[in-house]
Specification:
about 325 residues; alpha/beta; D-Maltodextrin-Binding Protein, domain 2; 2 domains; ten-stranded mixed beta sheet; about 50% helix; globular
């Protein structure tokens, strides 16, 4: 009997020790994080807004943490392929996603059966910058304000058209929301990318086109197109004389496309905190903020709670609006 009691006491002491031993590798891995290269998935091809922000952050984050940060472009099906790959990645802190309004907020309303849920499957690490959109018109369009365009479109349904970089793109969703809320009837002409849309806008074959203000600026400054409105809540220093949609009075609508880093939501909290702290230091660097401003961006300096609130607000707002309007990606 004494022998049995002794074995039980031994067992009681052994089980916690084994448990601690099994947890040790995970604790060690977290405390040593990062001990190898990080990967940042960009769900768009090289050269666009996603890619620019991802590489600007990756270069500085690598210096901050003492490990390389490799940018991997994973385009396909708009932004679905890369975003889905990030959602399914091991939640170990070594795979990050470049997230924006496009793949985090708009996709939630554009697809009936999305392979990921932005609020369930991702946690924001940090939002670095936001960009407004500029509504451009062909030079010979006989209107000089958004209010004039809307008035004409109401009186002459389907006489005007607008371009986008494709069904479900930010340019498409923003414009469709504006025409819906203002009551304007304007025909959508989707293109395979912004470059083709610009060719027809400059050639006078397209009436209107929304694009990121940073990309639109050279065309506006050169006098090749007219800037009619800005999508941000405030005026953009790049186009200080151009009204916002809100100022025009035609609709209660504003949109700024923010960009930042996200991780799978199951990433351990200590690793999320480490990444968040290091990225905050990167985002606050004056040279990075100057770079964003030179490209027409608005640097953001948000704490963790503000970042999460911004993401949740835009996901909920744009999911509802996109579904109410009936916009589809296909």
């Amino acid at each position: 009997m004494n022998k049995i009691n002794l074995n039980r006491r031994q067992l009681a002491m052994t089980v916690p020790a084994l448990a601690m031993t099994s947890l040790a590798p995970m604790s060690w891995a977290q405390s040593a994080y990062p001990n190898r290269s990080l990967k940042v998935i960009v769900p768009q091809p090289p050269g666009g807004g996603f890619d620019f922000v991802a590489r600007a952050l990756a270069e500085r984050l690598a210096k901050q943490i003492g490990q390389s940060v490799v940018v991997e472009n994973r385009p396909g099906s708009g932004t679905l392929v890369g975003t889905d790959a990030a959602a399914k990645a091991d939640p170990d802190g070594y795979t990050l996603l470049t997230g924006s309004v496009s793949n985090i907020a708009l996709n939630m309303g554009l697809y009936d059966k999305l392979s990921y849920d932005s609020l369930r499957d991702f946690e924001p690490v940090g939002i670095a910058v936001s960009y407004s959109y500029t509504l451009m018109a062909r030079n010979d369009l006989p209107f000089n304000s958004l209010k004039e365009v809307v008035a004409y479109a109401k009186a002459n349904p389907s006489k005007l058209n607008y371009a986008s970089a494709g069904n479900g793109s930010g340019q498409h969703v923003l414009a469709a929301a504006l025409w819906h809320l203002s009551g304007a009837d304007i025909t959508h002409v989707p293109y395979k990318g912004a470059q083709a849309a610009y060719q027809d806008l400059l050639g006078g074959r397209i009436d209107l086109f929304f694009d990121l203000s940073s990309t639109a600026r050279p065309q506006v400054d050169s006098g090749k197109v007219k800037a009619l409105a800005l999508s941000g809540a405030e005026r953009n220093p790049m186009h200080p004389n151009v009204q916002t949609i809100l100022e025009s009075g035609v609709a209660q609508l504003d949109l700024e496309s923010w960009f930042g880093y996200f991780v799978p939501s199951k990433t351990p909290a200590p690793i999320q905190d480490r990444l968040r702290n290091e990225l905050t230091k990167v985002i606050s660097q004056p040279d990075l903020q100057d770079l964003f401003r030179s490209r027409g961006g608005k640097p953001l300096n948000l704490n963790a709670a503000q970042t999460k609130a911004l993401v949740q607000r835009d996901v909920e707002r744009w999911t509802k609006l996109v579904r109410d309007i009936g916009i589809k990606a296909d």
